[in-house]
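Quiz preparation item.
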């Protein structure tokens, strides 16, 4: 199951997030940091961005969803629901 951990620093390395979750007794699968860097002249992205964390179904989901603080940041955890349909260009 894929979860969205909101409000972590955008430059937070995946291995730091993994280590923090493991120290809390959880076994995360894959962890993905936010993608993309702003292009020259483009507005800067917000300093706090979500990270994607994959965990096995069952008690792991409940453990991760109960977190209110991770890596020194206060945030929230939600179940990730992929957008329906193709990605749209914004231009």
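Solution:
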């Amino acid at each position: 199951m894929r979860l969205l951990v909101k409000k972590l620093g955008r430059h937070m390395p995946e291995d730091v997030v993994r280590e923090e979750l493991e120290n809390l007794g959880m076994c995360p699968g894959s962890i993905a940091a936010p993608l993309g860097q702003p292009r020259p002249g483009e507005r800067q992205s917000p300093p706090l961005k979500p990270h994607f964390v994959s965990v096995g179904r069952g008690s792991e989901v409940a453990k991760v969803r109960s977190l209110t603080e991770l890596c020194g940041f206060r945030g929230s955890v939600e179940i990730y629901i992929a957008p329906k349909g193709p990605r749209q260009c914004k231009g």
